[in-house]
């Protein structure tokens, strides 16, 4: 990413050299180095970095104390831990200390650059997602139906209005995580689900549990394929889907989410009507770490 000013904090001359070379080759502007808390404070005030790579073991202190001092000077400065130590307890503490990311030594230069670029991504990245996600999700559902049923569904009533949803009987809700947070809802009646599941299983579902499991997996494939397609267009998105949650029954209402961008549509298929609702918002959808 152009002109990101990086300050390197590490007490090892060897690691300082490795980081400087890696960051410079990746196109970042290394503006300074520090090996102690005093040098961190001095350099942050002097060079005003956009981002600091922080070792955990600093003589007389640690990476967390250094991070707190950095944020006292400027809370907008991003800090990522680059350390040989990495475990759940350290990651939890890093999150509480407003660290933006964590990567373990020995680091891979491409992974380090990806982590920094993802953290520092600006408004242009969100606008890129805004411009492509609805068409990608449509393509993913068309491709899924074609591969699984050899049919082509039709999209109707497409809308970008964020509304609550009254379920037809089965609603599968999936969170989307990555650079941005999102949500997908895949809804259908029991009748539609039964017809679709019968084709996929080549027999009628044994019971409601099997029916719901089939629909949950369909939603998982749909969302996962769409996110993979978006990531191929720009790997900075780093989108992944969370495990699905299935709601079923009569009179199920799902309130609208706190999303800035939504796309909804009805899908007319040979098995009955379905509907999808997808949305995203600005802000970090997932704390950035590479484990």
From TrEMBL:
Response regulatory domain residues: 5-120
Keyword Methyltransferase: no
Modified residues (4-aspartylphosphate): 55
Keywords tagged on the record: Chemotaxis, Phosphoprotein
Superkingdom of origin: Bacteria
Pfam families: CheX, Response_reg
Gene3D superfamilies recorded: 3.40.50.2300, CheC-like
Keyword Phosphoprotein listed: yes
Function: May play the central regulatory role in sporulation. It may be an element of the effector pathway responsible for the activation of sporulation genes in response to nutritional stress. Spo0A may act in concert with spo0H (a sigma factor) to control the expression of some genes that are critical to the sporulation process.
PANTHER family listed in its UniProt record: TWO-COMPONENT RESPONSE REGULATOR, TWO-COMPONENT RESPONSE REGULATOR ARR22
Name of the protein in its database record: Stage 0 sporulation protein A homolog
Organism: Clostridium cibarium
């Amino acid at each position: 990413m152009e002109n990101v000013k990086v300050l390197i904090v590490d007490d090892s001359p060897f690691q300082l050299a490795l980081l400087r070379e890696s960051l410079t080759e990746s196109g970042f502007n290394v503006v300074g180095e520090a090996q102690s808390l005093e040098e961190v404070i001095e350099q942050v005030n002097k060079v005003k970095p956009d981002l600091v790579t922080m070792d955990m073991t600093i003589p007389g202190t640690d990476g967390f104390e250094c991070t707190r001092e950095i944020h006292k000077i400027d809370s907008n400065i991003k800090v990522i831990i680059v350390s040989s130590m990495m475990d759940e307890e350290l990651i939890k503490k890093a999150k509480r200390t407003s660290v933006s990311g964590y990567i373990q030594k020995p680091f891979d230069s491409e992974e380090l650059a990806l982590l920094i670029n993802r953290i520092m991504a600006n408004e242009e990245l969100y606008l890129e997602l805004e411009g492509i996600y609805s068409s990608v999700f449509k393509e993913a559902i068309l491709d899924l139906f074609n591969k699984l049923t050899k049919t082509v569904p039709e999209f109707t009533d497409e809308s970008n209005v964020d509304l609550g949803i009254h379920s037809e009987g089965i609603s599968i809700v999936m969170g989307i995580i990555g650079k941005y947070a999102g949500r997908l809802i895949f809804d259908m009646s029991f009748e539609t689900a039964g017809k679709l599941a019968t084709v996929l299983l080549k027999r009628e579902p044994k019971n409601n549990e099997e029916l719901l499991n089939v629909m949950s997996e369909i939603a998982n494939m749909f969302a996962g394929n769409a996110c993979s397609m978006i990531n191929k267009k720009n790997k900075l998105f780093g989108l992944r889907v969370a495990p699905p949650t299935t709601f079923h029954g009569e009179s199920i209402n799902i309130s609208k989410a706190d999303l800035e961008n939504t796309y909804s549509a009805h899908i007319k298929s040979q098995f009955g009507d379905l509907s999808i609702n997808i949305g995203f918002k600005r802000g970090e959808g997932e704390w950035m770490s590479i484990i």
